[in-house]
Design a protein that fits this description.
Ribosomal Protein S5, domain 2; single chain; alpha+beta; 29% helix
């Protein structure tokens, strides 16, 4: 099976952005032996296609004497994920898809997993191959450090000092954060709000301050 790309989540912009997504903070590695065949799994963060291809090329060079260097990846923002897998000479569907399934199961994005196989002389059959590739990928992913990336929008707020406590409570209720603050004639905040709550915060802000304080988009 040759390498293939597809987007499982619909066309770009079809889904609203989530408030967060899960990816890897650091690489993971695992090794598995099945019927004398050796499977080495490497999981790595991959913010883009170039990075993913570089990881695959690096592992192919490192394990240049192996029979198969298979991979799966999930890249891009959660609303427009691109998936890719490659069986690298193994029977169709026995390597790339099980690797990709391990990434999907953990709901990870911006991740590539490479699984290298050294043939041990005993044929595993299609079912045995799929299980081994999937398990090696899963072990590598579990060895890696995961991190949650928050998604939202950043705004500027300027308001009189007497409103500070009220706006602190309002921001906390909408799970927002103050990212930067300064104090002069008035209080100035740069705030962050999740995608799911910034509109409701803006409406509550208008109601609470009778329109005296409004959200201004922050130019980062």
């Amino acid at each position: 099976m040759r390498a293939s790309d597809h987007r499982p989540d619909g066309p770009e912009g079809a889904n609203p952005p989530p408030d967060s997504y899960l990816t890897l903070a650091s690489p993971g590695r695992a090794e598995l032996k099945v019927q004398r065949s050796r499977f080495i799994g490497v999981a790595a963060p991959a913010p883009d296609t170039d990075t993913a291809r570089q990881v695959i090329a690096d592992q192919a060079r490192r394990f240049h004497d192996s029979r198969h260097v298979c991979h799966g990846w999930r890249l891009g923002p959660p609303t427009d994920v691109t998936e890719n897998r490659n069986d690298a000479g193994e029977p169709s569907g026995t390597a790339g898809e099980p690797i990709l399934a391990a990434i999907r199961k953990r709901e990870l994005v911006q991740v590539v997993v490479v699984v290298v196989r050294y043939f041990g002389g005993v044929k595993l059959g299609t079912g045995g191959l799929a299980r081994a590739y999937g398990e090696a990928a899963a072990l590598a992913l579990d060895d890696a450090t995961h991190r949650t990336v928050k998604q939202g929008r950043t705004f500027n707020l300027q308001f009189p000092y007497p409103l500070q406590k009220t706006l602190q409570h309002l921001l906390a209720r909408h799970t927002g954060e103050v990212r930067r603050e300064s104090y002069g004639a008035e209080v100035s905040w740069t705030i962050w709000l999740p995608h799911s709550s910034w509109r409701a915060f803006a409406a509550d802000l208008t109601e609470t301050t009778a329109g005296a304080v409004t959200l201004e988009p922050h130019d980062s």
